[in-house]
């Protein structure tokens, strides 16, 4: 029987989630603003030295980063997990002597399920998959932002660039579970409660990388991710729709207009269950052909659909809900 939360516990959960939301939305801008402002004060040597050091350190995020167990184990992540609550589920063993590419779906508005499950220790990834190291790959532009890049690296995030993926799959040993939110920023615009739409029919780059390095593919689905915010969806061709896509083209991500509960900032307390599927064995091919890529991309989509239907009932979805792949 679930124990009732104390007021103090509820307060800690709310504050923890609020800091995550504000970090996601504002920390990058705050870091840029702080560094620029300091340049016009007597403290100008500090940002100047940092910028020089950042240029020298420019490629570190693509060469293994600087993840720290201290940040990944912060108590705040456990409170974020408990707020919804969030859970990570294993359906098959993953061999720690191999490397994997985990394709995570859907993106949702902020990918909170993927971040909590794979970029923190709150959901117990290392206990569930002993010997494996989760590596969440995110928008590369984040690692160009001063100060913010240090925070992202500390949580064990990496750029979702080819150079970064190559390093993780070939120069970082075995036991790497490289997590890619396949739909990316474009899929965030499809995040609607009780609708399961993923963008991946033409997303095949991750399959080519898997073939080049012999990394097995693993489908992952976060049930409930689309329910934690209610998004304002613009009709195709409208001014709002065009502004979103223009911003995405320039900045690499799409701004979503969304609402939650309590002052619009707080996400709805909907359970989010991230289910890790069975691995698809992938051969190592130095120069995979388009036919090879199409074959394993098709196998991956079939495995994702099977995973979705096998676990939707246990994760609280009605039998009538379907997975739409576009």
Tell me what the structure shows.
There is one protein chain. With 326 residues, the chain is of the alpha/beta class. It has one domain. The protein is 41% helix and 14% strand. The chain is built from 12 helices and 11 strands. It has helices at residues 7-38, 45-56, 69-72, 75-83, 112-118, 125-128, 148-154, 162-170, 184-188, 205-213, 239-251, 290-311; strands at residues 86-90, 100-105, 133-138, 157-159, 176-181, 197-198, 216-223, 230-231, 258-259, 272-276, 324-325. The chain has a 7-stranded mixed sheet, sandwiched between helices. It has a two-stranded parallel sheet with strand order 6-11. Helix 7 links the parallel strand 3 and strand 4. The radius of gyration is 20 Å and the shape is globular.
Number of strands: 11
Give me the strand/helix succession: HHHHEEHHEHEHEHEHEEHEEHE
Spatial order of strands in the largest sheet: 1-10-7-2-5-3-4
Number of helices: 12
Task: Supply Rg.
Answer: 20 Å
Family: Belongs to the diacylglycerol acyltransferase family.
Main location: endoplasmic reticulum
Enzyme class: transferase
InterPro entries: DAGAT
């Amino acid at each position: 029987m679930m124990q009732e939360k104390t007021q103090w516990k509820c307060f800690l959960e709310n504050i923890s989630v609020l800091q995550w939301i504000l970090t996601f939305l504002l920390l990058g801008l705050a870091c840029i603003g702080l560094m620029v402002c300091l340049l016009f004060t007597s403290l100008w040597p500090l940002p100047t030295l940092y910028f020089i050091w950042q240029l020298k350190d420019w490629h570190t995020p693509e060469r293994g980063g600087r993840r720290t167990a201290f940040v990944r184990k912060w108590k705040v992540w456990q409170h974020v997990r408990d707020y919804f609550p969030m859970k990570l589920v294993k359906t098959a063993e993953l061999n720690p002597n191999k490397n994997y590419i985990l394709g995570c779906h859907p993106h949702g508005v902020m990918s909170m399920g993927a971040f909590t499950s794979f970029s923190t220790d709150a959901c117990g990834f290392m206990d569930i998959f002993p010997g494996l190291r989760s590596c969440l790959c995110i928008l590369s532009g984040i690692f160009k932002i001063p100060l913010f890049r240090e925070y992202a690296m500390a949580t064990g995030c990496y750029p979702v660039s080819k150079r970064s993926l190559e390093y993780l799959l070939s120069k970082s040993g075995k036991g790497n579970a490289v997590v890619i939110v396949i739909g990316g920023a474009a899929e965030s615009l499809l995040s609607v409660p009780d609708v399961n739409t993923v963008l991946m029919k033409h997303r095949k780059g991750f399959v080519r990388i898997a073939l080049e390095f012999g990394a097995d593919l693993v489908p992952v689905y976060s049930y409930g991710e689309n329910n934690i915010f209610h998004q304002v969806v613009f009709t195709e061709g409208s001014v709002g729709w065009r502004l979103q896509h223009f911003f995405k083209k320039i900045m690499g991500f799409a701004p979503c207009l969304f609402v939650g509960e309590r002052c619009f900032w707080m996400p709805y307390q909907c359970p989010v269950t991230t289910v890790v599927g069975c691995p698809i064995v992938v051969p190592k091919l130095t120069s995979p052909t388009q036919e090879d890529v199409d074959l394993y991309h098709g196998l991956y989509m079939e495995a994702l659909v099977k995973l979705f239907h096998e676990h939707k009932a246990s994760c609280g979805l009605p039998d009538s809900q379907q997975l739409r792949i576009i």
